[in-house]
Amino acid sequence: MPPTAQPVNLTAKPMRHPTYYFDDGVVVFQVQTTLFKVHRYFFTRESEVFAGMFMVPPTADGPEGTTDTRPILLPISSRTRRRGFLSDWLSGTRLLTSESGPLRGWLDLLSITDRYQFSNARAAAISAIDHIGGLNPIERLRLSKKYNISAWRSSAFEALCQRNTAISIAEAHAIGLENLALLALARENVRTQHFQSQLGASQPQPAKSSLSQSLTIQAQPVPIFSFQRHATQPQPPTSGTMSFSRLVDKTQTSSAAPYNVDMVKSVVCEVFKVSVSEVSSSNSPL
Length: 286
Prior knowledge:
3 strands; 3-stranded mixed beta sheet; about 45% helix
């Protein structure tokens, strides 16, 4: 016999579906001198910031974002405003499934989604930027600190450890003191191990647990830092120049003796461990 349908209690209060009960309300944003009136659901679902904002009880003047006279102000630059990404993002029509488009547009979107904690859109922007490529290591390292993207920090360190060009003063200011000190440690150790392997040294390589011991070798075939005022350095014949002001990646390494990629990754990983250890020690009570 077919199962008997259970009777429905029509007098009971129905429950809202947790996913498919949409909030069809709208919200008004102001960016520079332009007003946007868009569906609120996208912002409530995707952003912790906006979800919390919409739950705040309205003031005596009424809730923000409900009329043209009381819009929610978004502090977005006019440069970002001119790009189509902003309109698509505000309307929710950009589903962020495509990784095409200009690099600068995705960087603008990363800035917005990071500020307002749109976690899914932020991850999509990072993926698109990785797919498009073109960020030089210095810019990648600077942005990794700004947006807390550890993968960009590692890849930037690995590229800079293999770069023949010295770190300029302008670049040092851009990446910060902590990254500068760690980069010096990593570059010196990479070069020590690289030239030992090229010379066929018979002495054993330093253990990973004693990275600082490998820095006692004084030979330094390539300068680590430059104290010249210019952002570019005189290049050896096999190396190109890189302008700090450009986003395009101009990193080049010596074609005569390329670095061992696995060795570079290992050194960078160990340097980060040293950094964490030092931070933990400095924060521990005396």
